[in-house]
Amino acid sequence: MKKNKLVYIGGPTCSGKTSLSIVLANTLHTEIISCDSRQIYKEISIGTAKPCQNDLKNNKHHFINHISIHDNYNVGIYYEQSIKTLESIFKTSETAILVGGSGLYADSVINGIDNFPKIKNSVKQKINLLLKKEGMKKLNSMLKKYDPEYYSVVDKNNTRRVVRALEVCLSTGKPFVSFFKKDRKNNLFESKILLMNPDRKELYKKINSRVDKMISLGLEKEAKKLFKYKNLNSLQTVGYKEFFNYFEGKCNYKNTIDEIKKNTRRYAKRQITWNKKYKEAFLVNENYKLNEILNFICQ
Q1: What domains, with CATH codes, occur in the chain?
Q2: What is the pLDDT of residues 124-183, one digit of tens each?
Q3: I want to staple 153 with a disulfide (CB 3.0 to 4.6 A). Which of 66, 130, 274, 289 is the partner?
Q4: pTM of the full predicted structure?
Q5: What band does 283 get if pLDDT is binned at 50, 70 and 90?
């Protein structure tokens, strides 16, 4: 029996993932599942570089503008919903497109996830106490010891993600990323991995230009509307958290823009590091040939 194909398009931000996903969706007559943990929110658009309205209208996208920043959402919920969506797509198409830069979200679909353990209150209290007394530097040091792989890619300033990973590590004695490595036999689909492979210098130029474009489109105004919700985990996002600091008088306007660019480049670097695990991936260069990609998918 011919197996369905899940085509995952990964790579750093600003590398052309969205445009390639549109090309492949049109060519293969299928739908697109986003695995971007920020484009999923309705209220943040400019700073998350969502596909344009024309693309959203002409191509069916799932998990973009899917929930509110106020909703309780995590990778486990995403995994369950995305598998149901894939089952629906495969009723009418032999192929589905998965695209986005959130490594854990992508891994959950491609490899599945184990059930996370219930975290004991004693573990939560221990970590919270360390956070209050010694700060994020201490927690990051612990995460580097218990799970160096996740440490290498996580945003070190995202308190919730670092705390969550440590909770799992201390509760189970296992690395956080081990729960995304089931390596189970997948009866629903076969995965085909495409990784965007841009020149690093050119990528950084594009990132800087994209940030400038976001500013001209009104990122500051969008962030201002959300300022009162600045402590939500969903808003601990590059492009917004820097403006929140600006609104609080912690930095000037020029430094704010520079920080957004720098943090976006750092995020891109972490994405590249995370994707190195896909040894069997097809590397997509800037001047790619569509027929070569299609041949890889059909293998």
Answers
A1: 5-115+182-199+272-298 (3.40.50.300), 121-177 (1.10.20.140), 201-269 (1.10.287.890)
A2: 999 999 999 999 999 999 999 999 988 888 888 888 889 989 999 999 898 988 887 655
A3: 274
A4: 0.85
A5: very high
